[in-house]
Specification:
By secondary structure, the protein is mostly helical. It has a single domain (10-61), classed as lambda repressor-like DNA-binding domains (434 Repressor (Amino-terminal Domain), Orthogonal Bundle). The protein has four helices and two strands; from the N terminus they run βααααβ. It has a two-stranded parallel sheet with strand order 1-2. Helix 2 crosses helix 3.
Amino acid sequence: MPSDIKMTLKTAREIKKLSQEDAARLIGVSVDTLSNYERGKTFPDVVTLKRIEKVYGVSYNQLIFLT
């Protein structure tokens, strides 16, 4: 994916065709935690963010975190 494209966590997950349940399992967080990340209620720590980058195939710079 081009590195200049910006997307939300939910969009990045949907591009990979992952359900919240599958994505949460691959990232190593609960579904509730992932849902909170996607809605901007909480934000992942650096270790979790690195796992998100790997699972979704995106870099931090491509992600938009909504508040």
